[in-house]
Amino acid sequence: MPTVTRFFIRTGLIWFVLALGAALLTELRWLNIPAMRPLYWHMLMVGWITQIIMGVSLWMFPGRSRSDAFKDHLKGWLTFGLLNAGLVLRFISEPVAGPGGSFIWAVLLIVSALLQWLAGAIYILELWPRVQSRKQRLKKRREQ
Amino acid sequence: MPGPSRWMIRISLCYLMLGFTFGMLLLINKAVDIHPAIWILLPLHVETLFWGFIIQFTMGTAYWILPRYLEGAERGRTGLSWAMAGLLNLGILLYLAGTVTTVGTFFLITGRSLELVAVGMFVYLHWGRIATYRNN
Question: Residues B31, B79: contact at Cβ < 8 Å?
Answer without folding.
Answer: no
